[in-house]
Amino acid sequence: MIPERVNTAEKKNSQKDISGTFALFDLEHFLRRILKNWYWFVVMLVIGYAMAWVYSKYYAQNIYASDLSLSTSSNASEFLPTQSNQSINFIWGDTGNQDGLYLKKMLLSRSHNEFLVKELDLFVNYSTKGLIKSTYLDKDDSPVFLQIDKKHLQQINYPITLIPKGNGAYEVILPEEGESTNLYNYEVEGFQDINSYSRPADKTIKINEWYNSPNLRFRLLQNPVPTKIKLDNIIINLNSVNQSVDEIVSTTGVDFDKEIRSIMIITKKGYNLNSTVNFLNKSVAELQKKRLADKNIVNKNTDIFLKDNLGNIRKKLDSSANVLNYLKTSEKLYNIKDRDEKSLEKIKELEAKKADIISKISSLNNIKNTLQSQNFDKMIGTNAAGFEDGIFTATVSELKALYTKRSEMATIYKPSSEPMREINRLIDEARMGSSNSLRNYYNRYYEEINKIDREMAGANSDLATYPEKERKYLDAERGYNMIEATYNSLLGRQSDTQMRMATNQSDITVIDPAKNLGQRPIGPNVKLAKTAIISGMLLLPLLFIFIGEVFDSKIRNIKELLSATKIPLLGVIGNNSNENMLTVLEQPKSSVSEAFRGIRANMRFLMDNEDQKGKVILITSSIGGEGKTYISINLASVIGLSDKKTILLGMDLRKPKIFGDFKIDNKYGISNYLTGEVGIDQIVNKTKIPNLDVATSGPIPPNPSELLMSQRNIKFIEELKEKYDFIIIDSPPVGLVADSYELMKHSDANIYVVRHEYTEKYMLKMITEKYHNDEIDNLGLVYNDYNTKQGYGYGYGYGYGYGYGYFDEDKNYKEPLLIRIRNKVQVLFNKK
């Protein structure tokens, strides 16, 4: 970039567009850093692929699923009835298969699955371990079953390893550590603390022999079915009942067939296919048994209740018939003239409905009293009360299970303990649910009775005109009809109940039992897991590069530097690979030397009159180490070689450097002159370049700032203007001291050195603000130590644009692989 001469007015007009700040994220530089660090992505790709392979081979546990389909008959029993409560429809999102929905709830209920866990010992888990990977076993795959002593406290989640020793003997190996004093009681399903104990020693036991230790008591039973798999070890873990129930409920799903809603499809997921198959078949079989047994109990209780009520109603009916017959014979009222048969028929119909509702309320009272007395063995069917509600029945079943569990827990827990408070809370919730259901039916029945009474009031008004004797007869007749209607209603319900008892069978029919058909695992998604692992590993270097880019405050981009500062760029200096700083003298044909010549040519744009004698050029930077002295030495050298009388002044009095490269004695220098110790002639030194003189800094003075800003120093510079065409000042860094700002008032051009990947962005803020506030004039930037191998390709700085092989350092240059591939592709396309 060749800078243009910028006047004060132009700078002020453009000042509104100057931000002076750098972008937080440079996408172009970020992409280049990614390309530069490509090998890390290759390494991470290899590591990620290896990790994915090891995961899929040795650690991924396959998840299997098996299905069972069944149907429910329409004649649902009292224990699992259909229902019309809208809440369950809302919960399950279905209104056309209410019995199936209730059955779904039962299959997923805690009481049903807790029964299975206890009945089938599902809290005992079997597995085997290979060299790396563990494999879950079905109980039937194990040659022996572990049977615990439920009266003994057991440690759960504590792996028990069995090693076959032959002849029905197994060595029991327990973990080296992990013994617990908080053991589980399977009888009350709670934990109890015991005294501390030493680790039980490994022991060999035989089939049917009890193993005893403070934290375990069990024995091994022979599997009656010979196993096909030979196992080197069997690992058994005991879970609590609650853990096992939660695991079953979370891995069991129930759906309905889309075409036939009465068909249910039950799915069980697990790590072993045989275990899922066996569980489904056993779960449904136990549910069928339990449903049939509960149906028989409820129907039998209902039949007894209806018989007792029929007996009482029969007595009332006989008494009412006697009264009616007496009125007929004694009062001769059996043939009333002008009877309003229409009104009487309506009254008879309404009274029959009322009698039926009253009998239902009586049954409802019986159900309510049974619940309050907690005598669930005497529970009658809800059909006796004229309704069938699955939610209510489920709540009653839950209450029964909760009361039983509370009785067991009361033997070990205090009434005020947390477990007892929790189960009391669950009981209160279930009791409230059942009470709310009954209250709804009470309200419904009483509303119907009130409606009937209102209709009967209108019909009774038509009978007010009858004589007293006739009205007496009609009242007796109505009483008889009402009792007869109640009797017939109860008789019909008894007939239904007896029919159920006579033809009682489970209304759950298995269509397709669960089978092991070699189903493929449904999970995990190994392909997705591999992709995630490999992607994650590739993201690591990308993340580190991104974080490095966001938090990187170094200047790495020439384009961004110019955009943020709006300061002209005089040139770009490449990396100096030599220890000596006299590059222009010792490597005159190098690209770096050519870049300094370009800076020399571009400086004329900073100065008002380039032919004027005694031009003062001040060179500074933000901090030390940015190449300020290196730029000063070589710029002075390249100007001196152009037949211009030049002097280089080392005015960085705090850190003298120049004398070493020119092999000059620094005994006397500018600091000595400014203190009046020596004259100008004693500090000016000749160099190999005839037109270049050097005045070194001299010994470090105690007051460098005062010396540089003194009138003697200003007079010193003015005297040198008379003798030299150019005066190059190597000044202190402006980011550390303010000396250079004072010297800039007496300079004709100012060069600010920015070092690639070294200068901090925030350090440029001060010089940028001063430049755009017209506190500094004739300022230009030099970008130092730029590495051409990074391939930014901006073209800044003379010496880079002439083609490879033009400079001395290009002799051994080898193009990057990507460039060579690009060139070959271009050649192929050009041929076409």
Protein topology:
Elements: H1 8-14, H2 27-36, H3 38-59, E1 64-72, H4 86-92, H5 98-107, H6 110-120, E2 124-129, E3 134-137, E4 144-148, E5 160-166, E6 169-173, E7 182-185, E8 190-193, E9 203-206, E10 210-213, E11 216-222, E12 234-238, H7 241-251, E13 252-256, E14 263-270, H8 273-330, H9 341-373, H10 390-409, H11 418-461, H12 468-502, E15 508-512, H13 526-551, H14 558-565, E16 569-574, H15 583-586, H16 591-602, E17 615-621, H17 628-640, E18 646-650, H18 658-662, H19 670-674, H20 680-683, E19 684-686, E20 692-695, H21 704-708, H22 711-723, E21 726-730, H23 739-744, E22 749-755, H24 764-772, E23 779-786, H25 817-831
Parallel strand pairs: 16-23, 17-21, 17-22, 18-20, 18-21, 22-23
Antiparallel strand pairs: 1-14, 1-15, 2-3, 2-12, 4-11, 5-6, 5-12, 6-9, 7-8, 10-11, 13-14, 19-20
Helix pairs in contact: 2-13, 3-13, 6-7, 8-12, 9-11, 9-12, 10-11, 16-17
Give an account of the 3D structure:
It comes from Chryseobacterium sediminis. It is an enzyme of class 2 (transferase). The protein is an alpha/beta fold. It has 25 helices and 23 strands. An 8-stranded mixed beta sheet has the order 16-23-22-17-21-18-20-19, with helices on both faces. A 6-stranded antiparallel beta sheet has the order 3-2-12-5-6-9, with no helix packed on it. A 4-stranded antiparallel beta sheet has the order 13-14-1-15. A hairpin with a 4-residue loop joins strand 7 (182-185) and strand 8 (190-193). Helix 6 (110-120) packs across helix 7 (241-251) and helix 9 (341-373) packs antiparallel against helix 11 (418-461). The longest helix is centred in the middle third of the chain and has 58 residues, at 273-330. The two termini are 37 Å apart. 32% of the residues are buried. The model is unreliable at 1-6, 74-96 and 790-806 (pLDDT under 50).
